[in-house]
Amino acid sequence: MTSPQPIPLDTLIVCPHCDAAYQLQRPGVGEKAKCQRCGTVLITPRRKAGLQIIAVSLAVAILIVAATVFPFLTIKAGGTANSVSILDAALAFSDGPLIALALTTAALIIFIPLTRVLLSIYVLVPIVLDRPPARGATQAFRLSEALRPWSMAEIFAIGCAVALTKISDLADVAFGPAFWMFAALVVLVVVQDNFLCRWSVWTSLDKT
Amino acid sequence: MDIAGQNLAIKSARDLGVVACTRCTKVWPAGTATCGRCGKALVARDEKSLQRVWALWLVGLMCYVPANMYPMLQTRTLLSVQEDTIVGGAVELMHHGAVGVAVIILIASVVIPLAKFMAIAFLAISVTRPSSVSNHHRQLLYEVVEYIGRWSMIDIFVVAIMSSLVQLNTLAAVNPGRASLFFALSVIFTMLSAQAFDSRMIWDVQAKQKGAPEE
Q: Domain ranges in chain B?
């Protein structure tokens, strides 16, 4: 089925999930281009998305640092109390071979989400300002995308809810300031992820 | 809104003699080795991907066995020290009357991981032979597996939160057991296995079944 004349490659777009090829047609702002075969969203441009994502990323970065340091949950039972921060929770597995697990947990809920927002700020700021891409922006965006499935802040938040229902009949549990920061953070991370049109970013990075 | 040459049947990039980057979706002539935009290695179909899927799947499954045999949590109270495996802990909760929580734990830590192993195995087998399950269902299954995979980590986080929080000196203390390490490894390897799967192969079989020319 190959046609004799060369195919203009720049006018093609291919679904990364099912390999269906389409003629490229840029959707208008607010519209979505979806793969007709498997439904994967290919392009989803938004007005001022870049600026919004930068703002959200900054908020996320500040919240992560704050939520890590402040007390997260406090438990009271029989006169003794114990408060922990998120870092304490992550480092709970700290004896013997479980130290590897402690480091992994800390990475999954703190360091990977933080790295991702810093990388997206680094990549997006020059694009929004209409400057040439920052040095190594391609690698930065690549790393940020590779880390995406490993950023598990929202899963940790649901984990809190489960842990609390398990503990609540054993002792009194109170929420610290970091708990609410973390709740806000989870919402923002999801917003940031869904606003980002990967195709638009790659196309902007390509202009060099 | 959709984009397409509406009147034509959907063709895969491979049939058009081009190869697309699965990371940044840029299209290159067939035979290009790496994507000039994002640097990813380009292959029309990742023929070796099934080997990686099976290897990682097996490691994940092997880690899942000790994850269920060793204790996940060690609960120390004034009077006793108790070590619970995943299933044992759920049964214990059920005896205490917390049936709802027990069922949630059983579903999250036993049913979903096992279903995930079976789903990945099914997908990997289904692309090598004609399958009676439609491509849309298999694509959906793949997306569900990719999405759910990360959520299995929730068990580890629950153990982490409980063991850092419940440290009340002599009164009660909860500590993580060895199973948590194996469970985390099992989740990570299952995620890697699902990521290694080249979902474009799901749609090739359809083309074969319809008698479309196969290169």
A: 1-44, 48-199
Q: How far apart are CA A90 and CA A152, in angstroms?
A: 12
- B184 has a chain A CB within 8 A of its CB: yes
Of A78, A152, A166, the CB nearest to B171: A78
Q: What is the pTM of this model?
A: 0.84
Taking CA B178 as the corner, what is the angle to CA A155 and CA A72, rounded to the nearest 5 degrees?
40
CB-closest option in A32, A90, A155 to B153? A155
ipTM over 0.85 threshold? no
Q: Is A187 near chain B, with CB under 8 Å?
A: no
CB B90 within 8 A of CB B102: yes
Residue the block writes with tokens 């994507």: B35
Q: Which of B20, B156, B191 sits opposite A149 (nearest CB)?
A: B191
Cα A203–A207–B1 angle (5° rounding)? 25
Residue of B nearest to A77 (CA): B168
B148 at A interface, C-beta within 8 A: no
Q: At what angle do helices B112-126 and B200-209 cross, to 10 degrees?
A: 50
Q: List the structure tokens of A81.
A: 């109390």
Q: Inspect the interface and report whether the beta carbons of A173 and B165 lie closer than 8 Å.
A: yes
Q: Which residue type is seen at B4?
A: A
What does the pLDDT profile of chain A (208 residues) look like in tens digits?
444 455 677 778 888 888 888 888 888 777 888 888 888 888 887 777 788 888 888 988 888 888 888 888 788 777 777 888 888 888 877 776 778 888 888 899 889 989 998 998 999 898 888 888 888 888 899 899 899 889 888 888 888 877 877 777 777 788 778 888 888 888 888 887 777 888 888 888 876 5
